[in-house]
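Entry type: protein chain
Record version: 2
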Amino acid sequence: MPAMDPEVGMLLERQRYLGHLELGDLAGAEAAAARMVASGAMPDVARHEHGRVLAALGRHDEAIAAQRAAAEAAPADRRSFHRWCLASIEAQAGDLEAALRTLADALGEATRDRALLEAHAAWLNLRLGRGVADLQGLRARLRASPNREGYGQFLLGMLAHELGDRPATVAHLRAFLRRNARIDEAKRRTLEHELAAARRVLALLVSS
């Protein structure tokens, strides 16, 4: 019987991985992701998925190593995405300075996602209590970019809040929360800080 093609095997493991995530079984998902990596096929995808579930499990050092490997294995057109994901894990682990350095590296390779990376770096600097130049310009560029949905909605909401634009803050953060109302356990855990921040800002605006 011929051996299974590595890419086919990897894709079958990915289906198992997604099934475990649907059930909230992070340990099972991590084991499936490790087998995806071991297959040797689609290395940046496999390592990214492994990093994602490791981060959800709170194994941040391993997650950072896996996501860094994903960025190194990625083709040029996906490298800035993987570096952005690496920065997100570093921020989740509490190392905002490392996340900013990683975002700077990603910006050196970015094309269509440049506005998202710039806005994310601005938000991290704001979290560190630093001033950020041209917030209006950053917001305008993100609103005009193809990355304005999803995580972009969260960043737009936080930039609008910093700028004192209450209606835009509420609209963007509510859209972000609606979009993430039904997500798998790994994504919920990796977005835990952002979901809490969005709810906190909305509660503040509603009560004031």
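Comment: The chain has a mean pLDDT of 94.
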